Amino acid sequence: MRRVVAAADGVALATPADGDAAALAADWDNAFDVDPDDRPQPPPVALGRAVVLDAVTGALLGQVTWHEVRWGRTRACAAWNVGIALLPAARGRGAGARALRLLTNHLFATTDLDRVEAATDVDNAAARRALLAAGFLAEGVVRGAQLRGGVRRDLALFGVLRGDRP
């Protein structure tokens, strides 16, 4: 059973229900997925996850994730790193920007961290537009941050501070 945690502007973020992961995987197009890596991984970072729904119909549109990152050794240097994955049929209607804004507002309202950031492939024009529309500022390029298709890919970094919100 899903529980809506935030809703605005026609989209809702909800706890995933049984079957949501399979439904997302069945319709996912693998666009911008990174290459597999069999090397040992560090312990997983606690990851928050919510599904994105059409607030009127309840249709599954995708998911958002978030985890804490540190830019220094203290809590004051921590930020939320967020991601979004929309199903191909849900793209191009502004749902991504609305979901990112909703998630950012939710994180600022429910936690004490003052920064939310996201990164996307420099060639992912749709994600870049969604981040800008959600109120993020373009901050720069992280060179060679991801491996996809056997090629090192640059990521565009975006961020928003609590003080940037009205």
TrEMBL record:
InterPro entries: Acyl_CoA_acyltransferase, GNAT_dom, Ribosomal_N-acetyltransferase
UniProt KW Transferase keyword: yes
Source organism of the structure: Actinokineospora iranica
Gene Ontology MF, one: protein-N-terminal-alanine acetyltransferase activity
Top-level taxon of the source organism: Bacteria
Assigned keywords, A-Z: Transferase
Matches recorded under Pfam families: Acetyltransf_3
Gene3D superfamilies: 3.40.630.30
All residue ranges annotated as the N-acetyltransferase domain in the record: 11-164
Name assigned to this protein: Acetyltransferase (GNAT) domain-containing protein
Example of a GO cellular component annotation carried by this entry: cytoplasm
